[in-house]
Specification:
By secondary structure, this protein is an alpha/beta fold. About 40% of the residues lie in helices and about 20% in strands. Strand 9 and strand 10 form a beta hairpin. Helix 4 crosses helix 11, helix 7 crosses helix 8 and helix 8 runs parallel beside helix 9. It is globular and about 55 Å long.
Length: about 325
C-alpha cells in the first residue's frame, strides 16, 4: 500500500506505530498500525458493555496505555460517530448518547501519555479513501458510511471540508420527509429504523425465509441474493431511500462521485442497483450521466483504517 507521499519524520519512523480506535454504536474497534498503515493487531468490545462515560473513558485510557508500551505507539487517532463543537465537546452523537456533552479529547489527553486526535468517524474514513483507498484518483467526492447510523463526509479539491462547525457532510440528517413523523434519512435506513421496518414487513409475509430468525441487515442481504421476495423488496427499499437522500446532496453540491463504506456497504448488489436507479432518476442530467459510485474495499474496517490515517496525518503535520 503506497502512502501517497505521506511520511513520518525519519527519527520517528523506526519502531514507532500508530494506534487507531473506531468508536461505534455497536462496537469499539481497536488496532495498531505501522507508519505504512499495515495492521499489526486488532480487537473489539461491544459498546453496550459501557453504561457510563467514566467507565468507557477508563477502558480507553487502559487500552491506550497498554498498547503504547507493548507496541511503541507514537500517535493515536480516534473516530467517533458524531460532531463536536469548536471546543471539542461532542454535541451531536445520536447513536451513542453516552458520549454526548463529553470532551473526549481533553479527558483522554489529560490522562494518556501520548498525543490523541479525535474526529468524526466518517471524516476519518474519507481521509483514508482519499489518501489510500478508492478515492485516490478523485478530486471531489461524497463519502457515505452505512452502519448503525448513516454518516458522511465531503472531500473538495482533495481536502476534507468540515464547514463552519466541523459538521459538514452529515448525510444521515438530510431531511427527506418534512411532514411525517420520520424526518431524516437516518430515521428510515439507520440500522435500528430499517430493522424495525423489516420486522413489520415480515409479519405480513409468512413465506419469507426471515420469518423464524433473529435477522440483521446482512441476513436480509443474503436472503435477497437467494431470491427471497421480501428480502429483495427490502434491499430495493434501502437503496431507493438512500438514493433519494444522496440525490439531494449531489444536486446541491454538483459532485458526481460517491464512495460508500461501513459494514452495511457489503450488502447485496440489489441494493446498489436500486440506489443507482433512484439517483439516475433524481439528479440533474449532467450529473446523472457522469455518476460514479465506488465501494470501499475495506467495508466494515474502513473506520479503523480511517482512525489510523488520522493518527498518521496529524503526526506528519
Amino acid at each position: 500500500m503506497q502512502r501517497n507521499s505521506i511520511k513520518l519524520p525519519a527519527d520517528k519512523e523506526n519502531n514507532m506505530n500508530l494506534l487507531a480506535i473506531d468508536i461505534g454504536g455497536t462496537s469499539i474497534k481497536i488496532a495498531v498500525f505501522t507508519p505504512e498503515l499495515k495492521m499489526i493487531t486488532s480487537h473489539f468490545v461491544e459498546t453496550k458493555k459501557f453504561s457510563s462515560p467514566p467507565q468507557m473513558i477508563d477502558f480507553l485510557c487502559h487500552e491506550i496505555e497498554k498498547l503504547k508500551e507493548s507496541h511503541k505507539i507514537i500517535s493515536c487517532g480516534i473516530g467517533v460517530p458524531g460532531a463536536s463543537d469548536e471546543n471539542d465537546l461532542i454535541i451531536n452523537i445520536p447513536n451513542l448518547p453516552i458520549l454526548r456533552n463529553i470532551n473526549l479529547k481533553d479527558e483522554l489527553n489529560s490522562r494518556a501519555s501520548l498525543p490523541i486526535y479525535i474526529d468524526n468517524d466518517a471524516n476519518c474514513a474519507a481521509l483514508y479513501e482519499l489518501h489510500f483507498g478508492v478515492g485516490k484518483e478523485l478530486n471531489n467526492f461524497i463519502y457515505i458510511t452505512l452502519g448503525t447510523g448513516i454518516g458522511g463526509a465531503l472531500i473538495l479539491n482533495k481536502r476534507l471540508f468540515k464547514g463552519d462547525f466541523s459538521s459538514a457532510g452529515e448525510i444521515g440528517f438530510l431531511i427527506i420527509n418534512y411532514l411525517g413523523k420520520k424526518k431524516y434519512l437516518e430515521d428510515f435506513i439507520g440500522r435500528r429504523a430499517f430493522l424495525k421496518y423489516a420486522k413489520e414487513k415480515v409479519k405480513t409475509s409468512p413465506g419469507s425465509s426471515l420469518k423464524n430468525i433473529n435477522f440483521d441487515i446482512k441476513d436480509i442481504s443474503d436472503s435477497a441474493d437467494l431470491g427471497d421476495s421480501l428480502s429483495v423488496e427490502l434491499m430495493k427499499y434501502y437503496g431507493k431511500i438512500l438514493g433519494i437522500g444522496l440525490a439531494s446532496a449531489i444536486n446541491l453540491l454538483g459532485i458526481s462521485s460517491l464512495v460508500i463504506g461501513g459494514g452495511v456497504s457489503a450488502c447485496s448488489s440489489i441494493m446498489y442497483d436500486s440506489l443507482a436507479k433512484e439517483m439516475r432518476n433524481s439528479t440533474l442530467a449532467n450529473i446523472s450521466n457522469n455518476l460514479i459510485i465506488k465501494k470501499s474495499k475495506l467495508l466494515g474496517q474502513v473506520g479503523l483504517f480511517g482512525a489510523g490515517t488520522l493518527a498518521l496525518l496529524k503526526k506528519v503535520n
